[in-house]
Please model this.
Amino acid sequence: MIIVGLTGGIGSGKTTVAKLFGNYSIPVYIADAEAKRLMNSSEQIKQELIELFGNNAYLNDELNKPFIADKIFNDKAYLDNMNAIIHPKVKIHFEQWIKEQNSPYVIKEVAIIFEHQQQSKYDLIITVIADKEKRLERVLSRDKTTPEKVFAIMSNQIDDIEKAQLSDFVILNNDMGTLENQIHKIHKSILQQCRNTSN
Ligand code: ATP
Model:
């Protein structure tokens, strides 16, 4: 089965695009959402996060997101250590999930592919790009955050031009107008590549 990585900077519209691929009955795996779910459901992850961050990591048995976001924002080593706990578990979960799918291709949405040199894990990569001002505006209206925090995340991500050059497909998501049309074309092209590989 062909694995298509879907990536893009913060607020570019990855999840919005992923859901539109779902309209073509393409199975979509949202790595961030699965990671968040596992952080609340896996006893092993809970234990390891409490060892890393202390007892405040969970509040009433729920991940204490503001506390952890604050720790990560102030010390990148926390983010690296947290990723080292969570990424291997998400990887195992994805490998299990993919065995249950019956489709010519699947989409895996991951914010960070190029930043972690994970390109070789995917047969094809789609990058969603959008103007920085639009991305900032979207994140500020979606999340309780500040422009400084959004800019800090942006500065840790590879910029759109470089990502686009490294990708098989690029989706420009400055407005919703042409989004479905772009996705339709890419879907058809991927299906064609799936047919070519199975011949
Ligand atoms: P993140 O990396 O922060 O998780 P993302 O790349 O997955 O973000 P989305 O969650 O899809 O981005 O989009 C961010 C916000 O912008 C959402 O509230 C979404 O509804 C909105 N949005 C996405 N695309 C558009 C668009 N073309 N026009 C207007 N709003 C949009």
